[in-house]
Amino acid sequence: MPDRRVGRQPDVEDASYGLIVVQRWNVREPRERTARWRIAVAVDILLHSFVTFIVFGSYLVGHPDPPLWGVLLALPGSYLAVSFVHRVFLQWWWRATLGKLLLGVVLVRSDTRERPPLRRLAGVWLLSLVLTFAQLLDGL
Questions:
Q1: How many angstroms separate the CA atoms of 102 and 93, rounded?
Q2: Are 48 and 40 in contact (CB under 8 A)?
Q3: Is 105 helix (H, G, I), strand (E, B) or coil?
Q4: Which of 40, 41, 98, 119 gives the lowest tally of CB atoms within 10 Å of its CB?
Q5: Is residue 10 scored above 50 in pLDDT?
Q6: CA 50, CA 61: separation in Å to the nearest integer?
Q7: Distance CA 3, CA 14 (A)
Q8: pTM value surpassing 0.85
Q9: How does the UniProt record describe the way this protein sits in the membrane (predicted)?
């Protein structure tokens, strides 16, 4: 039974939902590459933002005088769509996002070191979305 006392950090497997980031060329290596993973996440966020503004810009070109609610829905909707495709489908296909590929790490299952299932990637993406909104609302 895992220890769930207040203030205790969960181990790597609990915190990552059975997924870990390891070196791309040696997925059997026991050490997780957390520093590279953090930099890769920053690269991915910048990439998501850049592609979002391209998608959002194409929306504005197609709708030269959009209503305010259209703008308020299109910008976060574009970001969520870009993020989902990149972090779920492309990460499932390549075992890494573009940021992880640039830094030489991949996402694997912690138990078998195989490709993570699509459903787990989608669940982790959805959970990260919920936690992000919870943090934003907690700051209000």
A1: 16
A2: no
A3: strand
A4: 119
A5: no
A6: 17
A7: 11
A8: no
A9: Multi-pass membrane protein
SS3 29: coil
Task: Give the helix ranges, DSSP H, for the chain.
Answer: 12-15, 34-62, 68-84, 91-94, 98-103, 118-138
- Say how many CA atoms lie within 13 Å of 108 toward its Cβ: 19
What φ, ψ does residue 38 adopt, rounded to 5°? -65, -40
The set of residues, in sequence order, having a beta carbon less than 8 Å from that of 129 and lying 6+ positions away, is: 80
pLDDT tens digit string along 46-89? 999 999 999 888 888 888 888 888 888 888 999 999 999 999 99
The residue type of 126 is L
Q: Which residue has the tokens 């590929």?
A: 101
* Alpha carbon of residue 92 to chain centroid: 12
Residue 44 neighbours by CB under 8 Å, 6+ apart: 86, 87, 97, 98, 99, 100
Residue 31 φ/ψ, nearest 5 degrees:
-85, 135
